[in-house]
Amino acid sequence: EYLELFEDQTRLSIMSNLGALVKVDIDTRFNLPYEDRDMLDPNDMPKRKIIRDFLIGISNVRDMIISSDTLEIIYDLSRCEPIPLFRNLSSLRANFFHNRWEMLPVFLESCPNLKSLSLSFSKNPGNQILLGPHRLPPTLEHVKVVKAMKGDVVAFTTLATYFLEKSTILKEFSFFLSDFSEEEESVILTKLLALPRISSSCQVVVHR
């Protein structure tokens, strides 16, 4: 079964039979406001329970599309309590808008059997990227940047460096040169060719 969940589309508190889902597409803030960065109140136990129960309910899915808004709320929850493991998740696409990147490795730690990761960026979220002791899934084989952050070579090469240096069995890191200018293309290709790769079988694939 397949679920698409967008903001205000449905009430999470009355959803049932989530365990039968195979794929989910989630873009929701769980009815939390946009006004403040720190939107999930650690003392709001009913809201935490709704989010936790929903995550537990979908924890058996194999394929997930998730927005950075949703990742941000999950990141906030992770600072209050452990988030559920997604042991069956093998394919993940994360769509980033204006949000910070630091929530991504936190969520990836809950996906121990992830094989394929796709990333899309509508805006450049800055360079606060993927720092800290977080570990990538040891099963990760493919990383594809479907849409890169335009006009920021540093942010993109930092992203590439993170996966090439930390993904132990990575087979392919791919991206589209059409996201960059001709001048940026040359800089990116030079930097990527010089990057060390922890996986000896990893290929950098460039799409034009």
TrEMBL record:
The region annotated as signal peptide is none
User: Could you tell me which residue ranges the FBD domain spans?
Assistant: 134-207
Q: Which domain of life is it from?
A: Eukaryota
Tell me the protein's name: FBD-associated F-box protein
Gene source species: Noccaea caerulescens
- UniProt xrefs under InterPro entries: FBD, FBL13/AtMIF1-like
